[in-house]
Amino acid sequence: MGDKNSSVLIAEPRGGWHDSLSRALPGGGSEVVAAHGAAEAVTVGRSLQPELALVDLGLSHDCSLVADLLAACPETKIVAVFDSAEGFPDGLSDVMALGAVAVVERTTLATDLFPVLGTRASGPLGPLDPAAVPTDRYIDLRNRHDQQRRVTSRALCAALEARDFATGQHQNRVTRLATSCMRLIDAPRAVSDEVVYGFMLHDVGKIGVPDYILLKPGPLDYWEFEMMRAHPKLGLQIAEPGGFSQETLDVILNHHERWDGFGYPRGLSSDEIPLAARVFSVADAYDAMTSDRPYRSAMSPGDALHIIRSGSGCAFDPEVVDSFLNLEFLGSPGVGLGGNG
């Protein structure tokens, strides 16, 4: 099929690069082979052992295809390609650490990458110098995307606080609690923007809950509670267009799931529930219990912790409960204690 020094693998879901790249290599010294699925790309890569692989991250939204290809063909130089119009795939910021030599935005392939390859078209490709492939546009796009998410997050939090001041205060307290607990379980993820955005925006769906339910000064009846239970799905609909990652959206959608499968909206259980959502649910429950409501006073920290401990293995992930109970500051002024939560 061709040797490692004279072949190029193109992994893309829709096709279209093959002809462009073939034209960029007019000397005929390189074989260009296309694969249109992640599994196919790994199989072809293992057989072909190409010198270069262009990987469209649309085939692998968590960017794991880069690592899988390198395991199959460790000497292959991988250039990751993404489409900023479709949002930034989860893990894109780590794709270079996974082993890619460059990251290129799809619309700039013709200007950034193809000319670099064309300069060596008279024979085998030879070494690809990562410095020859511009990544400034990727870095600029990533910075702009991060800024966009920060602005969007602040705007959504402000909108929620304007609807219900108590909910706005709750999101600040519970984010501190959940972040502190996550630090004991998975320290790197505790400082991840993706996780923190999920914590901050967990209740953003309440923007879509009618005032007479959201602000009701008493317990909700059955139908009102059913409407309130819709807020995780509403939150997903509100946040998804903002370019937030799947990890952020997972917290928003799943923070009311239970370890035993009796939560909502999807009835997930145990490890089916994303870790960040499992951590958050414990912090959320604690803050709700230790906060005043119009129809009841706040519970003492000790009583709330007793209920959290009792819920281990049914409502909550036992590992998360153990970590939460080890937080030294529980019950301190301003942490997990407040007004209406």
Entry keywords:
2 domains; alpha/beta; 17 helices; single chain; 341 residues; disordered C terminus; Hypothetical protein af1432; disordered N terminus; Rossmann fold
Examine the coordinates and then state which fold CATH places here, giving the name of the CATH topology of the largest domain.
Answer: Hypothetical protein af1432
Largest sheet, in brief, is: 5 strands, parallel
Helicity range of the residues? Answer: 40-55%
By DSSP (H or I, 4+ residues per run), the number of helices equals: 17
State the CATH superfamily name of the largest domain: Hypothetical protein af1432
- Which CATH-level-2 architecture of the largest domain? Orthogonal Bundle
- Which segments are poorly predicted (pLDDT under 50) over 5 or more consecutive residues? 1-5, 119-132, 332-341
Q: Total strand count, please?
A: 5
Question: In order across it, which strands form the biggest sheet?
Answer: 2-1-3-4-5
Element order: H for helix, E for strand: EHEHEHEHEHHHHHHHHHHHHH
CATH uppermost class of the largest domain: Mainly Alpha
The outline comes out as: elongated
Count of discrete domains: 2
Whole-number mean pLDDT: 80
Structural class of the helices, strands and pairings?
alpha/beta
Proportion of residues in extended strands: 5-15%
Distance between the termini: 64 Å
Quaternary organization: single chain
Rg over CA atoms: 25 Å
